[in-house]
Amino acid sequence: MNLDAKIPEGPLADKWDNHLFNMKLINPANRRKYKIIVVGTGLAGGAAAATLAEQGYNVEAFTYNDSPRRAHSIAAQGGINAAKNYPNDGDSIRRLFYDTIKGGDFRAREANVYRLAQVSNNIIDQCVAQGVPFARDYGGLLANRSFGGAQVSRTFYARGQTGQQLLLGAYSALVRQIGLGTVTMHTRKEMADIVLIDGQCRGIITRDLLTGEVESHVADAVILATGGYGNVFFLSTNAQACNVTAAYRAYKKGAGFANPCFTQIHPTCIPVSGDHQSKLTLMSESLRNDGRIWVPKNKGDKRKPADIPEEERDYYLERKYPSFGNLSPRDISSRAAKEACDDGRGVASTGYGVYLDFADAIKRLGRDKIEERYGNLFEMYERITDDDPYTTPMMIYPASHYTMGGLWVDYNLMSNIPGLHVGGEANFSDHGANRLGASALMQGLSDGYFVLPSTVPHYLATNGPFEKVTKDHPEFKKAEAEVRDKVSRLMSIKGKHTPTYFHRELGKIMWEYCGMARNEAGLKKALELIPQVREEFWKDVTVTGDAQNLNTVLEKAMRVADFLEFAEVLVHDALERDESCGSHFRTEHQYPDGEAMRNDKDFAHVGVWEFQGVGKKPLRHKEELQYENVKFAVRSYK
Amino acid sequence: MKITLMVWRQKCCKEQGKIEKFVVDNVEEDMSFLEMFDILNERLILEGKDPIAFDHDCREGICGACSMTINGVPHGHEHGTTTCQLHMRKFKDGDTIYVEPFRNKAFPVIKDLVVDRTAYERIMQAGGFVSVATGNAKDANNLPISKENADLAMDAAACIGCGACASSCPNGSAMLFVSAKVGQFALLPQGQPERKRRVLAMIKQMEKDGFGGCTNMYECEAACPKNVSVRFIAKMNRDYLRASLFTKSK
Ligand SMILES: Cc1cc2nc3c(=O)[nH]c(=O)nc-3n(C[C@H](O)[C@H](O)[C@H](O)COP(=O)(O)OP(=O)(O)OC[C@H]3O[C@@H](n4cnc5c(N)ncnc54)[C@H](O)[C@@H]3O)c2cc1C
Ligand code: FES
Predict the structure, then answer these.
(1) Are residues A178 and A323 in the same domain?
(2) Shortest Cα distance from B241 to chain A (angstroms)?
(3) Could you report the predicted ipTM of this complex, rounded to two decimals?
(4) CA-CA distance, A81 to A96, in Å (whole number)?
(5) What is the pLDDT of residues A284-311, one digit of tens each?
(6) Beta strands in A68-160 (DSSP E)
(7) Are B31 and A133 a contacting pair at CB < 8 A?
(8) A292 and A249 housed in the same domain
(9) Which of A303, A357, A620, B43 has the fewest Cβ atoms within 10 Å of its own Cβ atom?
């Protein structure tokens, strides 16, 4: 597998500018002749599709939602980072770069992360130009807040609906192009496979979710911006339909899957309340700006929070990490919550919850200020739990939230398959072993507005014009037949369990053995269990209805089938990465105080997996990471 | 709790629909309305039946996908709440609940409770944007915007495009939806150059898609899960009038 990252020459700060100059261009009159397919119209895909169309390329975009405005990105709450340094509190491109590398526990590529920090400022400018209503102060300038893992205020926000406003910004750019006829938008169509011809990615196969039609779409280049795979845990903060299918299909066709074991567990979600639960709701990390996290000092203390006196409370983050306190990074905060609960000091009916308390902030700032900052989050919390967080502390617990792993890409965001580009959460590129809050929106928009619209044309200019192919090409016909075959196999099993049943079973295994803390024995156990569930699925799943009509059971079954194969790759990765780093905590590797112990000598690389067949162990390749500008350091937030 | 559901079933847009009755036992107070449907659907699948189709995705009240008419009201009676955020503790043991799709002739039923809302997409394509290409936008702080206007713009921008407004309106009007987008941009300097063009184009498309006109019934505001105010409609009407008077029609 060719894992050349193609990092441009030159000093770190000049790489992207040099590269922009050195990349080839296509004459405006010729751009229309190139067809680019964009799968996924969240932040990354929506921005890329709109921008490439603005440049004059012929774009076709796909989403399984009924509108691009409903992509999972819409749910992001807290904010987006940028190195603007408007508050003049010591921020800079270099500091954002360094914080991101450190936050990722030294497992991300320097050059990519530096570019991300550089581009971050353009994103804010672009969004404001589109009319995104970011929060402002009384002088009319943009307001900032702090997020975990940073000691500066660099997060821009629009109430608790930042993702919504950014996505609607990208969506407005996209609808403008759709209206102009430069983007053909396909909604309610799910990509079921990619198609390679002579080693190049030349198109995709989709299934129309309303008619069941299986169709081919030919292109000169394909961009996948299909989001993350956090739903492999069944319960997560992701939207219900988020799935791994697009990325996994590409992997099966030869694309490398990088660092799948780097999955983020978010510390502040509403705890599980019962078996009926379909998703976990995130309470934005921004709440940790003003909320204090604590559990009772004594085990099994069942008193009401208000009845527990100050000296019998353990503000464990403030105690263990005095300099970052309640704003410690996500992996650290999540593990600390788990430790407190495993120690028998958890709250909530299940014992798996900790308090997030606003009493002090309300005393200090007044209820109005808190309402202005977090009003909609408090409302959402109350709606779900029936508790009023203004008068009683919130209860929170960690949940699966984001996936740093994804398809391997080079500096140009191209996978090892020529022509197949990957953006947003679907690639692995910038967050290493742990993502900092408010950095996913930044990365999605950086990829979508600025990186892909430069690198995809470069690919086309360097490799095109391409040989003409049509939908009748045998490779397309073959891939179509495979999808139809999968559908009819699923429809014909007529077993005893629903697809959701198997998804839940898989989720239990993943959370238990490959969740917040992992070890060799557990991971090996998971590798025994997953194939059993998969086998049972193919023997005993039932899909009702028919395949030529809107069929939500079939949709779910197709997605679960891929999760059941993909989960094994994730666990292999967790097992082979025999160190702790960032979100990946192997209990075998920790310091006496319980902190993660990295092994830079053996694991300062990207683990990239190559498909070898279902149920066969995939091949692991390495891309060594070179650190020329930052030095390895034990990540300390104390 | 035991809940009786009277649910609209319709195989596809061409066929006639009808109400079908289901009884769901073991409904818990902490469940969301959609989780109750999950349980029912799991049961239907195991009985070999086609489950009830409904749109949903985020289940956090932000994507605008969920779209049920509950006891005659889009998203149900609970104020400022989407269907996915409606919890069963708002109902009583033994309740009978009628559940239908969003009703508007511009939103044809696709199946059961799923409707086709692409009419909203076309309205957005007609003018729901600021025409600015990606590139070297000027520094964001070079464009100060008063906090009051930024906050008001955000109130309008909170719209999730679910379609409850148009489905609750006796005239089937989409004015609240259109005015939310028009109003957001009208409050911001970025929106000024295209202000007249935008309001004319979006309203024209709205009419073309078969939505009705506004006669100030305010049902839309009551049904809006994001509490978008009808004041934006009043503002838009002024903009529309001004634009019609002072713009040469093409
Ligand atoms: C509750 C929540 C809050 C968050 N808050 C923040 C925050 O405050 N700050 C921050 O920086 N990040 C936040 N994140 C993370 C961030 O929102 C996501 O990582 C980011 O939005 C992902 O964007 P994306 O464009 O890569 O993918 P998505 O927005 O997930 O879009 C994926 C797109 O791909 C399409 N798709 C997928 N598969 C297929 C297929 N097979 N066929 C066709 N289409 C397909 C979907 O329809 C969709 O259009 C949050 C995440 C969650 C869950
Ligand atoms: S499911 Fe997203 S708003 Fe209800």
Answers:
(1) no
(2) 23
(3) 0.98
(4) 9
(5) 888 998 999 999 999 989 999 999 999 9
(6) 80-81, 155-156
(7) no
(8) no
(9) A303
Nearest CA distance, A548 vs chain B (angstrom): 11
Closest CA to B129 of B197, B204, B221: B197
Domain that holds residue A294: 266-400
| CA–CA gap between residue A351 and residue A341 (Å, rounded) | 7
Residue type, A235: L
Mean pLDDT score of chain B? 96
Identify the residue among B13, B31, B57 best suited for mutation to test binding to A, counting A beta carbons within 10 A and taking the highest. B57
Boundary of a domain, candidates B88, B111, B134? B111
Three-class SS of residue A146? coil
DSSP-based three-state secondary structure for A477: helix
Kindly state the DSSP code that residue A598 receives in the 8-state scheme.
-
- Provide the CATH number for the domain around residue A56: 3.50.50.60
Ligand 1 atom having least distance to the Cα of A226? 34
Bridge partners, residue A320, by sequence: none
B215 in the same domain as B106:
no
The C-alpha atoms of residue A60 and residue A56 are separated, in whole angstroms, by: 13
The residue nearest atom 13 of ligand 1, judged by CA position, is A76
What's A580's domain CATH number? Answer: 1.20.58.100
Which amino acid is located at A586 in the chain?
R
Q: Which residues line the pocket of ligand 1, CB cutoff 6 A?
A: A 39-45, 62-65, 71-73, 75-80, 162-163, 190-191, 225-227, 237-238, 242, 245-246, 282, 401-402, 424-426, 438-441, 444
Distance to chain A for B37, nearest Cα, Å: 10
Shortest-distance atom of ligand 2 to CA B64? 3
| % helix, strand, coil for chain B, step of 5 | 40, 15, 45
Residue B243, domain extent: 118-249
pLDDT in tens, A239-252: 999 999 999 999 99
Q: How far is the CA of A273 from the CAs of A503, B206, B247, in angstroms?
A: 19, 43, 58
Residues 6+ apart with CB under 8 A from B234: none
Q: Is A72 in contact with B34 (Cβ distance < 8 A)? A: no
Q: Which pTM value belongs to this model?
A: 0.97
Instruction: Please indicate whether residue B57, judged by its CB atom, sits closer than 6 Å to ligand 2.
Output: yes
Q: What is the CATH number of the domain that holds B132?
A: 1.10.1060.10
For the stretch A512-557, pLDDT in tens is 999 999 999 999 999 999 999 999 999 999 999 999 999 999 999 9
Q: What are phi and psi of A310, to 5 degrees?
A: -45, -45
| Interatomic CA distance for residues A423 and A409, integer angstroms | 9
